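User: Predict the structure for this protein chain, please.
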Amino acid sequence: MQVNAATGSGNAATAAPVSARQDFMTLLVAQLKAQDPLEPMAPSEFMTQLAQLQMVSELTQIGETIADLRTFSSLGPALSLIGRTVHYHGDGGEALSATVDHIELGPSGCTVVAGGRQLTLSEIIAVE
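Assistant: Here is the predicted structure, written as structure tokens:
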């Protein structure tokens, strides 16, 4: 029996679940290879392990969905800022303001772009 490696999207959020799936499959294949041919695994035991694999897959999908929801939860407030003037502190601590041009979604979440500068929502101190 040959088991091909599962592939993920390559981001950090899916790396651990894909690894867990691979580890589970590796252990299952090793167990099947090492079992005594005269006393094979009981079908109910094998079905239990397959059910556990299905649970791992479903939990992985739930985790990915939760990660997506966290990313998109900041999208609503950021969208409402487009075209509005925001106030924030510059690198030297001075008070600056600029109009929000657009928003960007990245691996670290949602940022607004105002005056050519990327700002997280927590950096904005006031909105006009």
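The two ends are 64 Å apart (CA to CA).
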